[in-house]
Amino acid sequence: MRTVALLLLLAFAAPAEVVDRIVATVGRKVLTAAAVRQQIRVAALLNGAPPEESFAAFEAMRDSLIDRTLILEEMRISRYAIPEGAEVQPALDREIEQAGGPEKWAALLTRYRLTEEQVRLSLRLQAAVVRFTVYRFRPAVQVTADAIRSYYETRLPVQPKPALEEVRDQIETVIRREQINVLLSKWLAEVRQQTHIETYEELKP
Q1: Fewer CB within 10 A of the end CB, N or C, for the chain?
Q2: pTM, full prediction
Q3: Nearest-5° angle of CA 148, CA 152, CA 154?
Q4: CA atoms of 200 and 161, how far apart (whole Å)
Q5: Fold of 17-199
């Protein structure tokens, strides 16, 4: 009877390890290998590229999802709403159109082992993170006339260069985005230090 019980226990325990495993904890939140692999496939689909299956890609996506988890937790605390599915429908429609229509889109989803709802959710979370980041950090950003001129003179790659006034707004947008990203990176570094985060490097994708 003990042998039978042990065999039954192993029969139930073994599949659980194969199905999924924890690759990181962020506070009380858990990231699983399946979630990381799924997001790699979503990113590849949206970028029109094959999924990257290396451990470096797995590790990079895991770290990106840790950052996203921290941002989503801050959104929850701030009661900042995640966009509804209807709000990202135009973005999803563009993906379907670029794929060549509904039938080719369905085939693409099958090839990447994804469902449309998984892609839709990823687009919702992506939009939420972008909007919240702008909402949180844009008030602290100051773009000066000197910064715009410096960008125009030293970093604008277009040759021959258009007149400064013709590209002023575009340059200001780029500089503002860069400054927001700097503030976001600094904030994430601080929050990472304040949050108990565990990663499991020995686990392979």
Answers
A1: N
A2: 0.81
A3: 115
A4: 50
A5: Triger factor/SurA peptide-binding fold (1.10.4030)
